[in-house]
Amino acid sequence: MTTPLTVNPAALFKSPVRAIWNVQGENVPTLWWSAKTPADQTTLKPSEPHTVLFMLPGNPGLIDYYTPFLQSVHDTCQGKIDIFGASHLGHSAGSHVTDPSKLFSLEEQVDNKVAIFDRLREIYPAGTRFVIAGHSMGSWLALRVLKARPNHGIERVFGLFPTLHRIADTPNGRKMKNMFKPAARSVVGGLVSTLRFIFSAPPVLSSIVGLLTGQEKDMAKVTSQELLHSSVVKNCLFLAGQEMEAIKDMDKALIEEHISKFVFYYGKTDEWSPIENYYEMQELFPKVQAHLCNQGMAHAFVLGHGEAMGVLVGGWINDM
């Protein structure tokens, strides 16, 4: 017998709700948007269809970068869906981190995302429709979650500027490969620690980040307060190095088996997932939904185009 789900606690607060989830012994920062329900509705009955979007970040894997994007998705869907996003292991700093020196492998990230998906399935009633959206290497993670749980209610997988194969052979992969080596990780981590020491006041560091990167205020705040920690930067670089080694061959059999579930969105000037990948996807899988961006979005769409991408993704969900 399926137990009705008590109304989402996030409905009691202004979205999104931030929380730390303990998953397999590791603490994971999360964001949660609740589906809007009538004030007198206290349960979600098993017979009522429900949609949950599970967001997997790219690298850096800080879910707070995706706040404007996911808010836009929620608004486009008129608040009728739940949205849940989780940061990558090791890609955050704070009291919830038990071992700042630990470097998390790509396979540990996969296992963590599958475990989070399993937790979501326990929370929501039977019959819930799950949509997994992945950005950049998060698209590869999304495929791995689908492969691990092929018959568990995953109805769509959105790959946004997807890096599904040959990352090391991309323009950025070739240019940045030396950054992912142990010596370079140590140097960069030390520079970040020095920067935080010199500019210890958060508003000052945030202003400097905004000035140097051109990031808007909210994104510069995420970069300065959440990304620029030695342990986080080292984990990001370590994970990137693992991606170069592991993400080489596209899982063509998986895509073919679940072809109706996929929607891929490519950029025209993306140096992590070149436009050739879009044409290759179309050639290999003529029936797949593959789109080429005509809005001038960059690979890191969360930095300036989050709302526009949210409208697109929300529209895909509305069309399900």
Which features does this protein show?
Rossmann fold; two-stranded antiparallel ribbon; disordered N terminus; eight-stranded mixed sheet; alpha/beta; globular; 320 residues
Q: Can you describe what's shown?
A:
It is a single chain. With 320 residues, this protein is of the alpha/beta class. α2 crosses α3 (137-148) and α6 crosses α7 (217-227). The protein has a single domain (5-166, 249-318), classed as Alpha/Beta hydrolase fold, catalytic domain (Rossmann fold, 3-Layer(aba) Sandwich), CATH 3.40.50. Helix content is 41%, strand content 17%. The relative contact order is 0.15. Strands 2-3-6-5-7-8-9-10 form an eight-stranded mixed beta sheet, with helices on both faces. It has helices at residues 67-76, 106-123, 137-148, 171-176, 182-198, 202-213, 217-227, 230-246, 252-257, 275-284, 306-318, and strands at residues 5-6, 17-23, 26-33, 43-44, 51-56, 82-86, 129-135, 154-160, 262-266, 289-292. The model is unreliable at 1-13 and 39-47 (pLDDT under 50). It is globular and about 50 Å long. β9 (262-266), α10 (275-284) and β10 form a beta-alpha-beta unit. The protein starts with a strand and ends with a helix. This is Lipid droplet-associated hydrolase. Belongs to the AB hydrolase superfamily. LDAH family.
Shape: globular
Q: What fold name stands as the CATH topology? A: Rossmann fold
Helix content: 40-55%
Biggest sheet: strands side by side, in what order?
Answer: 2-3-6-5-7-8-9-10
| Biggest sheet record | 8 strands, mixed
Question: Which CATH class?
Answer: Alpha Beta
Number of domains: 1
Poorly predicted runs:
1-13, 39-47
Distance between the termini: 28 Å
CATH superfamily heading: Alpha/Beta hydrolase fold, catalytic domain
The succession of helices and strands, N to C, reads EEEEEHEHEHEHHHHHHEHEH
Radius of gyration: 19 Å
Strand content of the residues, in percent?
15-25%
- Average pLDDT, to the nearest integer? 91
Q: What is the CATH architecture descriptor? A: 3-Layer(aba) Sandwich
Task: Give the helix tally.
Answer: 11
β-strand number: 10
**Structural class designation:** alpha/beta
Family: Belongs to the AB hydrolase superfamily. LDAH family.
InterPro entries: AB_hydrolase_fold (IPR029058), LDAH (IPR019363)
Protein name: Lipid droplet-associated hydrolase
GO molecular function, one term: lipase activity
